[in-house]
Amino acid sequence: MSNIVNRRMTLQRYPDGMPRDDDFAVVEGEVPDIGEGDVLCRAIYLTVDPYIRVHLNPRLAKGYAPLLPIGGVIPGEAVLQVERSRFPGLKEGDFVAGFGGWQDFCALPGASLRKVDPTLGPLSAHLGALGMPGLTAYAGFTRLAEAEPGQTVFVSAALGGVGAVVGQLARERGCRTIGVSSSAEKCRYAVETLGYDLCLDRNQSDFADLVAKACPEKIDVNFENVGGDVFWAALHSMKDYGRMIMCGLVSDYNNDELPSGPDLAPTLIRYIALKRLVMKGLMVADFFNLYPEFQQVVGAMIRDGRFRHKEYIVEGIDNAGRAMIDMMEGRNFGKTVVRITDDPTL
Question: In terms of Cα–Cα distance, which of 139, 186, 185 is closest to 165?
Fold first, then answer.
C-alpha cells in the first residue's frame, strides 16, 4: 500500500474555550505497518463525542484521559474494515470497532477490537445507539439508576448519543421521561419520535421554572450529561432519596480554568444531605462486559421498531473538526459521525 497515503486529523494547538477550525489540521503520512497480533484497518466512520474534547483540555484530562500532545491524531472510536490481519480472530473484510482515532488507516492490536455485526443495525449505529454511547446509557440506566415504572427520569442532552438511548430505555421501563434539548425543533422530535413525555428547551430564560413546573412530583432519577444550569435546575427539583447519574458535564469541557465566582460546594452538599440524594459516577469502561447483552437488547428494539436513532452524518475527514465544533455548540441534530470512505454495506 506504498502508493496510498494516510490522512490524519491532528491537533495544532489546545483550544482556548470553544474549539476553532484552525485548532485542527489534516496531514498526510504513510499507511502504518503491523506486527504479530496486530490488524491494519481502514476507517469507514469516525465518532464525534464530547469526551474527545476532554483529551484536548490540559485541566480536565488529568485523571480522566491522556492529554493529547500537539501534533497528535485526534482520538476517538471508529468503525473500521480489516485490510490485513496478523491476529487469529480477524480476517480481511471483517468489520470492527476500535480506538483508531481520526485517520484513514490505523494499526491496532487485534485483542483491542470488537467485531461489528452489520445485521444488528447500520455500521454507523455501532458508534452511537449500538456503540459506546449506547452502552454508556444502557449501563447507567440498568445498573445504576434503579428506576421503577411510574418514576420520573430527567435526561439532559436528550437527543445525544447517550441521552436518546436513556430516554427510550426509560420509556420502555414505564417511567415518565422528561428530556432537555437546545431547540423547540429538537424537543418536538424527542416527544413525537423518541417517545419522551415532555422535552424542555434549555435556552429558555425561565428554564429552571419550567423544570419545576414539569416535575410537580419531583425527579426520581437525573441522568446528567450537561452540567451547569441544567444540573442546578434538576438538583432543585430532585425528590428525596433520588439518584443522580453523573455521566457527563459537557458545559464545562471548554473551560481551561475552574470557573470564577462563589464556591457552590456547600450548596450542593446541603442539597445532597437534606434530600438524602445518591450521586453515582458513570464510567463506561467499567461495563464493557455488558456489550453482548446491551447489543441484543437494543438491537431487538431497533428491529421491531420500538427504538429510533437519529444521526448527524458529516462527509469527509476534512470536516471532522468542524463537526466537533457544531456538536459542542449544539448545531447537530442526533448522534454525530463522520463518514470518510464509502460504506460497503449501503
Answer: 139
**Structural domain range at position 168:** 132-285
What is the rounded distance in angstroms from the CA atom of residue 320 to the CA atom of residue 17?
Answer: 18
Check which CATH number belongs to the domain holding 231 and give it: 3.40.50.720
pTM of the full structure: 0.93
| Spatial CB neighbours of 199, under 8 Å, sequence gap ≥ 6 | 158, 178, 179, 180, 181, 186, 187, 188, 190, 191
Q: Total structural domains in the chain?
A: 2
Contact yes or no for 75/52 (Cβ under 8 A): yes
User: Of 165, 154, 128, whose CA–CA distance to 226 is shortest?
Assistant: 154
- As a whole number of angstroms, the distance between CA 164 and CA 187 comes to 12
Among candidates 106, 103, 152, 161, which has minimal Cα distance to 129?
A: 161
- Does residue 124 sit in the same domain as residue 28? yes
Count of positions (residues) in the chain = 346
CA atoms within a 13 Å half-sphere pointing along the CA-CB vector of 25:
11
d(CA 97, CA 80): 6
Residue 149 domain flag: yes
- The pLDDT tens digits along the chain (346 residues) read 557 999 999 999 999 999 999 999 999 999 999 999 999 999 999 999 999 999 999 888 776 778 999 999 999 999 999 999 999 999 999 999 999 999 999 999 999 999 999 998 899 999 999 999 999 999 999 999 999 999 999 999 999 999 999 999 999 999 999 999 999 999 999 999 999 999 999 999 999 999 999 999 999 999 999 999 999 999 999 999 999 999 998 888 888 777 777 888 899 999 999 999 999 999 999 999 999 999 999 999 998 999 998 999 999 999 999 999 999 998 999 999 999 999 999 9
Are 240 and 171 part of one and the same domain?
yes
Q: Cell numbers 484521559 correspond to what residue?
A: 65
